[in-house]
Write a structure and sequence with these properties.
Number of strands of chain B: 10
Radius of gyration of chain B: 23 Å
Shape of chain A: globular
Structural class of chain A: mainly alpha
Number of helices of chain A: 24
Strand content of chain B: 15-25%
Number of domains of chain A: 1
Structural class of chain B: alpha/beta
Distance between the termini of chain B: 55 Å
Strand order of the largest sheet of chain A: 1-2
Oligomer: heterodimer
CATH topology of chain A: MetI-like fold
Distance between the termini of chain A: 51 Å
């Protein structure tokens, strides 16, 4: 096939939606591209130094943490999802949503809380003294193993949520069939459930891995140097933004590679999702003793990932209450809520537009192009902030100059340092979080129903609003809520891009924590968690309904 | 195809346009009654001081809080359009870095020259220190004879093998300490020192300065290198366990016979493209005034830079000390070298 042919095909297959997709991808990928371009600009002069002394250790640590967390989050997430969707036991309904709530705690806060427990003079010391005065309770968890534990405890819900969604909605009749054919429970799980649930589970796992690669706060406090530590060290300590951005670009390529491998694997298998299957799973009832065993087993991640850290935070809040409660606290909380809600809404709109314009565009390669836009999630927030500042400042400066020459107006910066710049950055950063649930829901629904509607002469928009949107509602809500919770927790990007007078709860918590006033940081942290729990409960309702 | 490409650009353009239309012109309007402060400090006491400045002068203080690195990055990106008037950092190294990047401007102010000793000011008046703190050695009161321990260099001797607690080299205070050794001595001695400390570390570096002090009390090591104000913070903590930790340690000012104890400062400079230069200068002058100095320093258990202001009771109780009067600009100048040394000797 010659080039002429290719161009002809391109011309034939390009339609309005191809262009909409491209525009959206450009809009989101611009800051990412601004980072990526630096791969070709090359690193700074300390590159050799970084490669010799730092990278080997950073890469080993990052890979170990990613592998450790993958294993742990998969075991915790998939097992608990399987148990709550297959078995009946006391407090099942409560535990079902409690299993998601660790997601509401920023992982660096969990890390601080655990350090506060196992520290010298920490809660464990006090407890140990209570029972046995001769001993000081102290356990060193501030190392790579502790870090893997803590990250896994705060991130397993990503796997749990996606695994449970498949278990609940997609495979009840296959499980039934397997049971009827006399296959054991154990074998059914490994031969039927796991392979079929793979795309969704891997989707959740990729989010976990991206979060792990992006973590800075927890790793820094625990003294574990990761790839992201390297980015910050070369940026700030070595004063070489070029090297830092070069490292981010490499990280981005790695993540993109990881996602592509999964895509290729998935395509080979050719998953066919049965959209008609809506029968609910009939849950098995075991003996009373076994039931309590399940209840306790499933309760462990909740206990470790939520109750213990929150308990420690509450203790700190009680200690510091008189100093930290201030009248403007409500304003801060409201500002956080407003910004997070607005940005989550905007993100989901872009995601829906992106997914559907990709679908409506006939051009095949466009699908690969559209996935570029979800890369932002793997890039450290601080780097995204710089990526956002490069193009928007150029635009701002250009606007400023032209307005000055044309109307001699002086308007200052319109995007940078305003809420608009901040929202834009949130969208770039968190698009992936909303993309996954919406996309998997849209794939599940398929396009057969809407195609019938189109064939019957209903126009595209009407079909979309009357048929597609109601059908993908769950995915849309899940996406929006996950982004909301993520924005509530977001820190580095907010610090750099937030306008004057705007403070979020995460920023407030950071201000205390960076002064080593961890106990004082507990109140704003607790507020982040509280605002995160409500959407989580709502999310759970949606999935189980 | 060309048609489509045109379409893409047209759409892009309108997309940008609608986006900017939504924006409302914000506080950047050139108002002479404002001062925009980019600060790394974020204490309640600072807020109160700023409010006091507002009532005294009628100049409104707008604050952006972030780490100094991020603020410098932000100012660099904003360039001439930057709304920043004043940059406040909590270490000298970052002020020097901001100056080197051309982000600050020279300020002529008799008030500042009078209030701030010369070694705590930039030679070209690009920045001024506002508070200072010492990096000292902390030890458990009841445990050990300090036999012979008097300098940072002593920590590298065999007597302190596996007994030294110090945080990661990502921390600017460690970078500045090593930079001061480079500037006072030379690269070879600094490398040997860093290597010696790594050999003597009680554990791989982790946690913050408070955690190092706790580890001394817990017996993980015998001595820790920390900033003075963290002891103040422990003693005034809401957590009774932390107060106990603070009470169990004593501090030692190193190198009293020689060059003096390493100090670092927090300080401020006027931004190169400051829209409100006069207000910015007035703001820094206000912070160096005796009344403000007391509040500004005590907010963080630090030493005031204005010699006419007495140190707080707690700080006086530790006694006076000889400070290293090395020009603070040297810390910024040698910072990168220091980081490179840390990496080569494997100080995490």
């Amino acid at each position: 096939m010659g080039w002429g042919n290719v161009i002809q095909r391109l011309q034939r297959d390009t339609n309005l939606w191809t262009i909409v997709t491209l525009v959206l991808v450009l809009f989101i990928a611009f800051p990412i591209g601004a980072v990526f371009i630096n791969l070709f600009a090359g690193p700074g002069e300390t590159w050799d130094h970084v490669v010799t002394y730092l990278l080997p250790n950073y890469i080993t640590n990052s890979v170990s943490i990613a592998i450790g967390c993958s294993v742990l989050t998969l075991s915790i997430g998939v097992t608990s999802a399987w148990i709550v969707s297959r078995y009946e036991f006391p407090y099942r309904k409560t535990l079902e949503w409690l299993l998601i709530v660790p997601l509401a705690i920023p992982s660096y806060i969990t890390a601080y809380a655990y350090a506060g427990i196992f520290d010298y003079g920490g809660s464990l010391t006090i407890l140990a003294r209570f029972f046995d005065r001769t001993r000081d309770g102290k356990l060193d968890i501030m190392n790579i193993y502790g870090l893997i534990m803590i990250l896994s405890l705060s991130l397993y819900p990503y796997v749990y949520v996606s695994a449970r969604a498949v278990f609940l909605t997609q495979m009840s009749n296959l499980i039934e069939a397997s049971k009827v054919l006399g296959v054991s429970e154990f074998k059914t799980f490994f031969k039927v459930v796991l392979p079929l649930g793979r795309p969704a589970i891997i989707g959740g796992l990729i989010l976990v891995i991206m979060e792990v690669l992006n973590d800075y706060g927890a790793a820094k406090y625990y003294g574990v140097s990761t790839f992201t530590t390297g980015i910050f060290r070369s940026w700030f300590a070595l004063e070489e933004p070029e090297t830092a951005i070069y490292l981010s670009a490499i990280l981005m390529v790695l993540v993109f590679g990881l996602m592509s491998i999964e895509r290729i694997q998935r395509r080979k298998k050719g998953y066919q999702n049965d959209s008609k299957n809506t029968t609910t799973v009939s849950r098995k009832r075991l003996s009373k003793l076994q039931q309590y065993g399940l209840c306790i087993g499933v309760g462990i991640p909740v206990f470790l990932g939520f109750i213990i850290p929150v308990g420690q935070l509450i203790y700190w809040v009680i200690l510091t209450l008189e100093d930290t409660v201030f009248t403007s606290f409500i304003t801060v909380a409201l500002q956080s809520l407003g910004i997070a809600a607005a940005a989550a809404f905007g993100t989901v709109i872009i995601v829906i537009l992106l997914i559907y314009s990709t679908r409506w565009s006939v051009l095949k390669p466009i699908q690969r192009v559209s996935r570029i836009s979800i890369l932002g999630y793997a890039i450290p927030g601080a780097v995204i902030a710089v990526g956002v500042m490069i193009p928007t400042l150029a635009l701002d400066k250009w606007l400023n100059r032209s307005l000055k020459t044309m109307f001699s107006l002086n308007i200052g910066l319109l995007i940078n340092g305003t809420v608009i710049g901040l929202m834009y950055a949130y969208m770039v950063r968190f698009l992936a979080v909303a993309y996954n649930p919406v996309e998997s829901n849209a794939i599940k629904i398929g396009s057969r129903i809407s195609e019938s509607s189109l064939l019957l002469g209903v126009n595209r928009w009407r079909t979309f609003f009357k048929i597609d949107l109601p059908l993908i509602q769950k995915g849309v809500w899940s996406g929006m809520l996950l982004v909301f919770v993520d924005i509530m927790k977001e820190l580095p990007l907010t610090l750099i891009l937030k306008p004057y007078g705007v403070t979020t709860l995460a920023v407030k918590a950071y201000e205390y924590a960076s002064d080593e006033m961890i106990a004082e940081a507990a109140l704003p942290s607790l507020c982040i968690i509280l605002t995160g729990i409500l959407p989580v409960i709502f999310l759970n309702r949606l999935i189980t309904k | 195809m060309r048609f489509y490409l045109l379409g893409v650009f047209a759409l892009l353009f309108t997309a940008c346009k609608t986006e900017t239309k939504q924006a409302e012109p914000e506080s950047d309007q050139q108002d002479t009654k404002e001062v925009n402060v980019y600060t790394h400090r974020h204490y309640e006491a600072d807020q109160k001081l700023f409010a006091q400045f507002e009532t005294e002068t009628g100049i409104k203080v707008n604050v952006v809080n972030a780490s100094a690195d991020e603020l410098i990055q932000k100012m660099t990106a904003e360039g001439e359009q930057s709304p920043a008037d004043v940059l406040i950092t909590v270490d000298a190294g970052r002020l020097v870095r901001a100056k080197d990047k051309g982000l600050l401007q020279s300020v002529t102010s008799d008030v500042l020259t009078k209030n701030i000793p010369s070694h705590l000011r930039d030679a070209d008046n690009h920045w001024f220190s506002l508070t200072k703190r010492a990096r000292v050695i902390v030890y458990a009161k009841d445990r050990i004879p300090l036999d012979g321990l008097a300098t940072y260099e002593d920590l590298t001797t065999a007597a302190w093998k596996d007994k030294v607690l110090i945080r990661s080299s990502n921390n600017i205070y460690n970078q500045s300490l090593l930079a001061s050794i480079i500037a006072n001595e030379n690269v070879e001695k600094a490398t040997a020192w860093a290597k010696g400390i790594v050999n003597n570390m009680a554990r791989s570096p982790k946690g913050n300065d408070r955690d190092q002090i706790k580890a001394v009390v817990a017996g993980e090591g015998d001595v820790a290198v920390v900033n003075t104000y963290y002891i103040g913070k422990l003693l005034n903590s809401k957590d009774p366990e932390e107060v106990k930790v603070g009470q169990q340690v004593a501090l030692l000012f190193p190198n009293q016979q020689g060059r003096g104890t390493h100090i670092n400062v927090s300080g401020a400079g006027v931004a190169k493209y400051a829209p409100n230069t006069a207000n910015a200068t007035a703001f820094i002058e206000f912070l160096s005034s005796p009344a403000a100095q007391k509040v500004f320093a005590e907010a963080n258990y630090e030493y005031p830079v204005n010699p006419s202001v007495a140190t707080s009771e707690l700080l006086s109780s530790w006694g006076s000390f000889k400070e290293d009067t090395l020009s603070l600009s040297a810390l910024g100048k040698e910072n990168k070298k220091a980081v490179l040394i840390f990496d080569t000797v494997g100080w995490k």
